[in-house]
Amino acid sequence: MDQSTDAQIVARVLRGDAELYAELVKRYRDRYARYAMHMLGNREDAEEALQDAFTRAYRSLARCEDPERFGAWLFRILVNRCRTIGARRGRRARTFVSDDVALYDAAEEHPAERSAWREEIERALSRLRTEQREAFLLKYVEELGYDEMSRLTGAGVSALKMRVMRACERLRELLSDVHDDREVRVERRRPEVNDAKPS
Amino acid sequence: MRNLPESWIHRIAAELRRPVRLDEEFDRGVMDAVRAMPRHRQRPWTRMLRARTITVSPVVSGIAAALLLAVALSAGHFISAVRANRATGRIDVATDRSGGTKPGPRRSVQFVLVAPTARKVQLVGDFNDWDGSHQEYHAQHRGGGVWSVTAAIPEGHHRYSFVVDDSLWVADPSAPRVLDDDYGVPNSAIVVGGGDATQ
């Protein structure tokens, strides 16, 4: 893996070493694929948005004001590509990720149960309004501060706080049954573990 | 609606934070698109000549400003913006905004926004690279919540927006809307030409 900083790679790409751009793609593709996947709800659109973001970033690389923060600049482009692709898709039903278990880390204690749990989350996420889903993902999943979210989205801080709050309320509403079932299953499993202990 | 504990939202976020894996096929797709585009051919010194913000002492800033002015005059170039921020001792030097990428005559255009609670309103658009920091794009409060700014805009089609209090992007309610491909937020559209335009 190339140990160069983002700024060093950007400088070399700008001087004509286009192949080195692959290193930037490798660095950011998985992390940003996560956002695109959650935002758009399916792998096909997510890959399109991400590929679009990478190629636009390459084309405009000379306009990247702070190459040391190439990742943040790229993310801004991706957020907007997700908006554009989501809007272009119009009212077509948002499919939720239900068959992407292979995309995640496989080391899980209860893969089937966990898959179902993730599926419920994705289903609930797909039922949020676009701006609420975006705000929730930026705040809780990407762990951005409100000021940065504001710079990224163009929305005011108070509006973003409201969107996050509404998103949380809606998720609680949509997932409360799943939460109860999951708690019951966890409770049932505990005595089995205790029984297995040698007396 | 049943209330779920706040920690549950964090558990949802933790689940969504799990990485999504894309394979090398994705990288190949991006790099094929990159290779199909013209290579960057930036000279090593090009980035040194681009507009940037530097921080110097007030004395040095005065000397630097004088030198820059002398260089600019002797070279026959027009430097449209040399901005000194006396409060912070910071000086921003911006290269020619008068038409490097937007040649042709300019026309005086007045932009108006009613924003009663705003403390600051700036005009941004493709004519200033979406950077409203220069004084000439700062709107003045005319009383009654009415803000206006008159700026010299190159003839042609433009997209623009207002930035209120450094964070909220507001499209001009009196102008047609257009979705910005790069930033995903609705902007306003204007055609400048054929006599002085007033928006």
Output the number of helix runs of chain A. 8
How would the global form of chain B be characterised? Answer: extended
The CATH superfamily of the domain at 106-192 in chain B is identified as: Immunoglobulins
CATH architecture designation of the largest domain in chain A: Orthogonal Bundle
Which of globular, elongated, flat, extended, rod-shaped describes the shape of chain A? globular
How many helices of chain B in DSSP terms?
4
Q: Which parts of chain A are unreliable, with pLDDT below 50 for 5 consecutive residues or more?
A: 96-109, 186-199
How does the helix and strand content of chain A classify structurally? mainly alpha
Uncertain segments of chain B of ≥5 residues (pLDDT<50)?
Answer: 77-102, 195-199
Say how many strands of chain A there are: 0
Give the number of DSSP strands of chain B: 11
Instruction: Tell me the major beta sheet of chain A.
Output: none
CATH class of the domain at 106-192 in chain B: Mainly Beta
**Helix fraction of chain A by DSSP (H/I, runs of at least 4):** over 70%
Mean pLDDT of chain A: 81
CATH architecture identity of the domain at 106-192 in chain B: Sandwich
Order of helices and strands of chain B: HHHEHEEEEEEEEEE
Helix content of chain B: 10-25%
> Oligomerization state of this entry?
heterodimer
